[in-house]
Design goal:
mainly alpha
Length: 115
């Protein structure tokens, strides 16, 4: 199982790195998955992610307290809102309804997490 966890962690870090530059691909959830995988396959890589100056504190907050800081909440909900607007202008109805439902469900969940 260790090689599968290692592969999953590497893929998650790669996608998370891409997500740092693309607004529609979530970075922190992918790094959370990578940390989970590395905890079971390569503890040194897990420590390196947790020690990262930008992403480490967010991951530690989630692992320790299931918390998302206010800035991250605003950024995530703002990115989803931008996605809804983009869908409205490019695809219109009825497709914008799908984006809006995702925004309401995911945005509500994010907004109600601890800070």
């Amino acid at each position: 199982m260790r090689p599968l966890y290692l592969l999953g962690g590497i893929i998650s870090v790669g996608l998370g790195a891409i997500g740092a530059f693309l607004p529609l691909l979530p970075t922190v959830p992918l790094l959370l998955l990578a940390t989970f995988c590395f905890a079971r396959s390569n503890p040194e890589w897990e420590r390196r992610i947790l020690a990262h100056r930008q992403w480490g504190p967010q991951i530690a907050d989630w692992r320790d307290r299931r918390a998302i800081n206010r800035r991250a909440k605003i950024g995530a909900i703002g990115a989803m809102t931008t996605g809804v607007a983009f869908t409205w202008f490019t695809l219109g109805a009825p497709w914008v309804s799908v984006s809006l439902v995702i925004l309401v469900i995911c945005g509500s969940w994010i907004a109600t997490r601890n800070e």
